Amino acid sequence: MSSETMTAQLANDTVNRRGLLLVLSSPSGAGKTTLTRLLREQEPSLTLSVSVTTRPKRSSEVHGVHYRFISIDEFTEMRDRGDLLEWAEVHGNFYGSPRREIDKALAGGQDILFDIDYQGAMQVREKAASDVVSIFILPPSIPELKNRLERRAEDSADVIARRLSAAKIEIDRWRDYDYVLVNDDLERTFGRLRAILVAERLRRDRQTGLPDFVQGLLNDL
Ligand SMILES: Nc1nc2c(ncn2[C@@H]2O[C@H](COP(=O)(O)OP(=O)(O)O)[C@@H](O)[C@H]2O)c(=O)[nH]1
Ligand SMILES: Nc1ncnc2c1ncn2[C@@H]1O[C@H](COP(=O)(O)OP(=O)(O)O)[C@@H](O)[C@H]1O
């Protein structure tokens, strides 16, 4: 990821800034897909990194929108060609973030949203540390996490059991993230998520156009 591609002018900003990579992780059922959907509706300038996965499609999912559903052979080929920025095995399936779409979005000066697990979050951070903002979503309680997985009614009982048992290892990774949100009330959590995005976009180091902008102000004094 060259710094040149990251400094493109971002729409609606007075001052040029670098794009950022917003990484959301959580144990299954805590609400990251819901929060991602809300962010995409209300922050259209944010580009979602659509992952490839070998997991079967859920009935609510659309190929190319939520994931690109591919075979294990296709996944292995992409991975071995170096087409994935990061990849991991999660709950017995493979997932990865295609590099091409990310490079294209960054070249267009977009911020990018990743819904990936902690293994992927760590890989993205190693590759682009200063551009990553990572957020971990926790459920308000374990019974509520279980309720949400059951209410979603998209997975079989054994898949739900597998996801709940993985939650222990995932929840334990909370210290690796910049921010932690407890997703109790959805509207409140979403408000906090947006607040993080707004503040992170305004970090001094991300506003690469500031020296010129401030010089312009000084020249006019
Ligand atoms: N490392 C990595 N993890 C991913 C990727 N895409 C999805 N995941 C994670 O894989 C896990 C399972 O996702 P999914 O099958 O959609 O189930 P859900 O979390 O219950 O909605 C979640 O923790 C996702 O964040 C990816 O491209 N890379
Ligand atoms: N704050 C919340 N309060 C109540 N239900 C929620 C909340 N956030 C998400 N849900 C519901 O919980 C279920 C799991 O959420 P989802 O976004 O699919 O989780 P994840 O992507 O983390 O697995 C969905 O049915 C969703 O509508």
Describe this structure in words.
Belongs to the guanylate kinase family. It holds the Pfam family Guanylate_kin. Its EC number is 2.7.4.8. ATP binds at residues 26-33. Residues 19-198 form the Guanylate kinase-like domain. 44% of the residues lie in helices and 19% in strands. It has 221 residues and is α/β, with parallel strands linked by helices. The protein has one domain (9-206): Rossmann fold (3-Layer(aba) Sandwich), CATH 3.40.50. The longest helix is centred in the last third of the chain and has 16 residues, at 186-201. The radius of gyration is 18 Å and the shape is globular. The structure holds guanosine-5'-diphosphate and adenosine-5'-diphosphate.
**Which segments are poorly predicted (pLDDT under 50) over 5 or more consecutive residues?**
none
Overall SS class: alpha/beta
Tell me the distance between the termini. 38 Å
Spell out the helices and strands N to C. Answer: HEHEEEHEEHEHEHHEHH
Small molecules bound: guanosine-5'-diphosphate, adenosine-5'-diphosphate
The largest pleated sheet is described as:
5 strands, parallel
In angstroms, what is the radius of gyration? Answer: 18 Å
Function: Essential for recycling GMP and indirectly, cGMP.
EC number: 2.7.4.8
GO molecular function, one term: ATP binding
Protein name: Guanylate kinase
